[in-house]
Amino acid sequence: MAERRSPAAAFAGRFAAASEGGALRLAELPFRTQLNLRVDPASPAARDLGDALGAPLPVEPCTAVTAGDVTVAWLGPDEWLVIAPPGHRPELLSKALGDRHGSAVDVSAQRTTLLVGGPRARDLLAHGCALDLHPSVFGPGRCAQTTLARAQVVLLPQADGVHVLVRSSFAAYLAEWLLDAATEYLR
Q1: What is the superkingdom listed in this entry's lineage (predicted)?
Q2: What CATH number is attached to the domain comprising 24?
């Protein structure tokens, strides 16, 4: 049986080297569970999904709710992304939804998560992102679908830095871009 390999595994050593100075912390957080939820936010099914997650589904645009080790990010008026540690059981959400109108789909293989942390993290991300990333505007409890260096991403500010969820097919490209853009902070 083949060993499971994450999309940015080849960059682990280079990420560690770039993180040595303390200005930045770059890492991949591989194999996180990611579930796409689609449901009417005013429905009883949405409430039951929130109960199963331990937090209500956020209804304000560009917000995220964290309960324990699970984060639920608002992606659209009736769409959320649930991010959880590897091994999270997606069948719990399917069971909470039951046969009601909506969907809970495991999209874990679609994206990987890159961590950009440290005191210069937001400066680094600003090189390739047009959003205002200042913590007073884009702090914990926020999320955004945007582009970073022309790659579509979901940004989630967390306590350890900004989690950058990028499609697996763009992970190597974005890892190279982050390392290149980080050069000025590594001196």
Answers
A1: Bacteria
A2: 3.30.1360.120
CA distances from 170 to 36, 45, 90, 136 (A): 19, 34, 25, 29
Of the candidate ranges 65-69, 84-88, 149-153, the one whose mean pLDDT is the lowest: 84-88
Counting every residue written for the chain, the total comes to: 187
pTM above threshold 0.85: yes
Nearest to residue 125, comparing CAs of 99, 151, 91?
Answer: 151
The DSSP line for 19-72 is TTTSS-EEEEETT-EEEEEE--TTSHHHHHHHHHHTSPPP-STTBEEEETTEEE
**Residue finishing a domain among 61, 83, 106:** 106
Report yes or no on 2 lying in a domain.
no
